[in-house]
Amino acid sequence: MGTASSKKFLKNSGGYTAEEAAVTTSAGAGDADKIPALNASGVLDASIVNAKVQSAGASDSGKVVALDGSGRLDPTVMPVGLGADTAAIVASEALAAGDFVNVFDGGSGAFKVRKADATTSGKHAMGFVLAAVASGATATVYFEGTNTQVSGQTPGDVFLQTTAGKGAATVPSAAGNVVQNIGFAVSATSVNFQSNRPIVLA
What we know:
It contains 1 helix and 16 strands. It is mainly beta. It is elongated and about 90 Å long.
């Protein structure tokens, strides 16, 4: 059963009068025919109005769309071809929000994502993540747009750094380092991402 409200009403139970509590949340079919009550915020709970922040596909047909924690629509509820250019890819290591990342062959043709790293060829930035992800979990990788989870940016071009996952104004200069312009800062906490071709230093 869903969460019971402190508000109760009277009902006929086999010829007797009985109290029954309204519900502020729904547990699904088991709460059929129950009377809903507003929650502590004075609104109907998402479980009662059958609202979803993320779509699992056709199984969520007919459900009400709700905004996510940032007050925006989740990309999974957008029609194909609309919304952010993203892909769901398994992380081969823990990723922090704002990391610039590299998509690679994790073995047997499996697509994996890891932190981009200017210390070595083959780990150039292809996208970024806006949310932290544990190793082995699925990351939402953004291939264009603004990375709003960075810090310490200065006006001008941003280059992939030898600190894995990071971008800054400093251009790597050691032999074997990768020089890759990955966009430009639009504020101290935002980088407009552009995946440019990397150059490996001799």
